[in-house]
Amino acid sequence: MKSTTFIGLFLFLSAFALLQCTNSNTVEPADPQPGEADLVKQGKYLVGILGCHDCHSPKRLGPQGPEIIPELHLSGYPADRPVGKIVPEAIENGWMLFGGDGTSCAGPWGVSFAANLTSDESGIGSWSYEQFKIALTQGKYKGLNNGRPLLPPMPWFNYTAMKEEDIQAIFQYLKSTPPVRNLVPAPVPPGTN
């Protein structure tokens, strides 16, 4: 009797397991796609920890040192600001010089200015996601395949293996920022300033 009960129980459990494995009505739930608000929140977080503000946000001197000017957040080098005097001897001796608020930088390549990353047309407002991805991961100006290389100190080479979802989150966040009209000046070639 024991063996009959054992065999019956074994057959029942086997049939139950087989039905569970072959049940075509069972659908695995898909990973939920983050909503736009979650994507923007993640992008804001990434922009913060990646240090984008260090170069792309104009600053003023506060009691604790440089502070981001909130209304110019991520708007790049202010177009109406004069370029400071470059010290050629320092550059010739291997130095790279940053402007007082970090939005400009001089080196052997000349002088470069941090881009406007806000949602304004003078920033990335008219950019496609693909352009943004090319600029960020391939170092191409305005994300154009035939664009000039992005100049130092932009560390685009650190982002070549960035996950697609992180790039998308950063892009969505930047597109959600308040637009700041600021046409950043073109780079100054070496020996011009």
Tell me the layout of helices and strands:
Elements: H1 2-22, H2 36-49, H3 52-56, E1 59-62, E2 65-68, H4 88-92, E3 97-98, E4 104-107, E5 110-113, H5 129-138, H6 164-176
Helix pairs in contact: 2-6
Provide a descriptive summary of the structure in words.
This protein has 6 helices and 5 strands, in the order H-H-H-E-E-H-E-E-E-H-H. The protein has helices spanning 2-22, 36-49, 52-56, 88-92, 129-138, 164-176; strands spanning 59-62, 65-68, 97-98, 104-107, 110-113. Helix 2 (36-49) packs across helix 6 (164-176).
Major sheet description: 3 strands, antiparallel
Spell the H/E element sequence.
Answer: HHHEEHEEEHH
**Proportion of strand residues:** 5-15%
DSSP helical segment count: 6
What form results from the Cα inertia axes? globular
Mean of residue pLDDT values: 86
Distance between the termini: 100 Å
Strand order of the largest sheet: 3-4-5
β-strand number: 5
Structural class estimated from helices and strands: alpha+beta
Low-confidence stretches: 4-30
What is the CA-based Rg, rounded? Answer: 27 Å
Classify the helix fraction into a percent range.
25-40%
Provide the descriptors you would attach to this structure in a database record.
6 helices; 5 strands; two-stranded antiparallel ribbon; alpha+beta; single chain; three-stranded antiparallel sheet; 193 residues; globular
Describe, in short, the structure shown.
The protein is an alpha+beta fold. Helices cover 35% and strands 9% of the residues.
